[in-house]
Design a protein that fits this description.
Elements (H helix, E strand, L loop, with lengths): L1 H31 L9 H10 L11 H20 L16 H21 L3 H32 L4 H10 L7 H17 L24 H26 L7 H25 L5 H24 L3
Helix pairs in contact: 1-3, 1-8, 1-9, 2-8, 3-4, 3-8, 4-5, 5-7, 5-10, 7-8, 7-10, 8-9
Length: 306
């Protein structure tokens, strides 16, 4: 019961904090582009304003489109709850805090996103949804190979146990395959946070986040909140496996986690601003092949016992 309460606690805290980081990222991005930009709390105001507006849905849409915002938010929250941030000492709760649970929930999130995009009836949204699926085809094999290396090294898929093993030095960067896997997984984390060149903030409706083109009001606010939560969940998964050092006290643990996630968030904004622009297909082809090669090297190193 205590662990369930801690899961709810960490999700609530990050739901409340995540829009602040998104606002800070928007401000920083504007400053880097020599613009004034809005203040840190603009994302809160945007979401509140959206929730005050009525729902509007295309006439051609079905229940998939109408339920998708709730499913996206619930799935993002479930992924976040499965990451042991505040309950890192509770080994018994690994049945839920498990790598396979996160992979299945991530696949469900992508499926709902793509289905809602196609059900919207908007060809631009459908294109955006199909590109989201294409990104998944490139990213998921890399992510799965990295996680296989970690699970084989730890001999478990329980995230709580894996986190503790890294803290105790049983597995970690002293193992070359683990270190190499962390590099490829870092690329996966960046792509899944939806930044350039895999997503363009200036044209979201036409690219990766195509489903946003047909949502409005509270539905749009819920989808945007779900996407921000997904960004934190992906950063949290990387931190839990590869940088798990934190306090056992739940309150201190969530504070440290938010600060560490903030560092990654800001770093992603810098890459987003100063990185080159590519066509999404060419950028995936060039970068994904390199990441796939790195993850394959990590798996090979583990197989040969290095």
């Amino acid at each position: 019961m205590q662990t369930i309460l801690l899961m709810i606690f960490q999700v609530v805290v990050i739901v409340l904090i995540a829009p602040l980081f998104d606002g800070m990222a928007r401000k920083l991005r504007a400053k880097l582009q020599s613009k004034q930009g809005s203040d840190f709390f603009q994302t809160y105001r945007d979401i509140i304003k959206l929730f005050k507006r009525n729902r509007t849905v295309p006439k051609c849409s079905h229940w998939v489109f109408r339920l998708a915002p709730f499913l996206l938010f619930a799935t993002s929250s479930a992924i976040l709850a499965a990451i042991p941030i505040t309950y890192s000492s509770n080994m018994a709760f690994g049945a839920y805090s498990d790598i396979f649970v996160i992979l299945y929930l991530g696949a469900l999130l992508r499926f709902v996103f793509g289905s809602a995009s196609m059900d919207s009836g908007n060809p631009f949204a459908a294109t955006g949804g199909s590109r989201e699926q294409m990104i998944g085809v490139y990213v998921e094999p890399v992510m799965i190979m990295c996680l296989i290396v970690v699970m084989l090294a730890a001999k478990t898929s329980n995230l709580v146990q894996i986190q503790q093993m890294v803290k105790d030095g049983i597995i970690g960067y002293q193992i070359p395959s683990f270190a190499v896997a962390s590099i490829a997984f870092l690329w996966c984390m960046y792509v899944e946070t939806g930044r350039k060149p895999y997503d363009l903030a200036e044209a979201e409706q036409e690219l990766q986040e195509g489903v946003l083109g047909e949502y409005a009001g509270a539905d749009l606010g819920l989808v945007q909140a779900a996407l921000i939560l997904k960004q934190f969940a992906m950063i949290g998964l990387f931190l839990t496996i590869f940088e798990p050092w934190n306090f056992s006290n739940p309150f201190l643990a969530i504070i440290v986690f938010v600060l560490k996630a903030g560092v990654f968030y800001v770093a992603a904004v810098f890459i987003d601003n100063f990185g080159p622009r590519f066509k999404i297909a060419s950028s995936l082809r060039k970068n994904a092949l390199a990441a796939l090669a790195i993850s394959f090297v990590a798996l090979t190193l583990y197989v040969v016992g290095v």
